[in-house]
Amino acid sequence: MNNQLTNLQSSDWEPVISLLFNSFMWCQVFNEICSRRINDEYDFFSGLHKSPIFLAVLLITIGLQALIINFMDIFFTSEQIEDL
């Protein structure tokens, strides 16, 4: 049986690993937003703009993710996702 996954080289997995990392990072961003409400409150977007520290942390998280995926492939084993 000819399985395509067994014939892949290690460089063929880099876009898949980058996509997995990117998905994990967006889950982290969503978790940061959802973790703002802890007392059974479901409207976790209310008052989001009132906390400048939270917005700064959120923007830093998103910015670092974009930098790692697009420009820091020297330090991290990542590849731009546009190849998928």
UniProtKB/TrEMBL annotation:
Transmembrane parts of this sequence: 53-76
Any Pfam family hit: Cation_ATPase_C
Cation-transporting P-type ATPase C-terminal domain sequence ranges: 16-76
Keywords carried by this UniProt record: Magnesium, Membrane, Metal-binding, Transmembrane, Transmembrane helix
GO-annotated molecular function: metal ion binding; P-type calcium transporter activity
A GO CC term attached to the entry: plasma membrane
Keyword Metal-binding included in the entry's annotation: yes
InterPro entries according to UniProt: ATPase_P-typ_cation-transptr_C, ATPase_P-typ_TM_dom_sf
Membrane topology summary: Multi-pass membrane protein
Keyword Metal-binding: yes
Subcellular location: Endomembrane system
Listed name of the protein: Cation-transporting P-type ATPase C-terminal domain-containing protein
Protein's organism: Chlamydomonas eustigma
